[in-house]
Amino acid sequence: MTDRYHTLIVVLNDDTRDDDCKPLIDAILMLKGVASVSGAVADLGSHMAEERARLEIGQKLLGICYPSRKSV
Questions:
Q1: H helix intervals, the chain
Q2: Fewest C-beta in 10 Å: which of 21, 23, 58, 70?
Q3: CB 29 within 8 A of CB 37
Q4: Which of 3-26 are b and which e, b meaning 16 or more Cβ less than 10 Å from the residue's Cβ?
């Protein structure tokens, strides 16, 4: 038995102006089975989440590039 989706989520690379997204939204609306398309406005919460994720990944990369030297 297969799963049935009721929603698909598209994530943009960067915060994008609503008027710049209009052609993309129009194109998605042309796809078969699409009932509606709406945008989620970028806010302080989404900005904080992105920055926290960026910081966490950066710290992990630094840990890989410069591992701590523990004496044995």
A1: 18-29, 44-65
A2: 70
A3: yes
A4: eeeeeeeeeeeeeeeeeeeeeeee
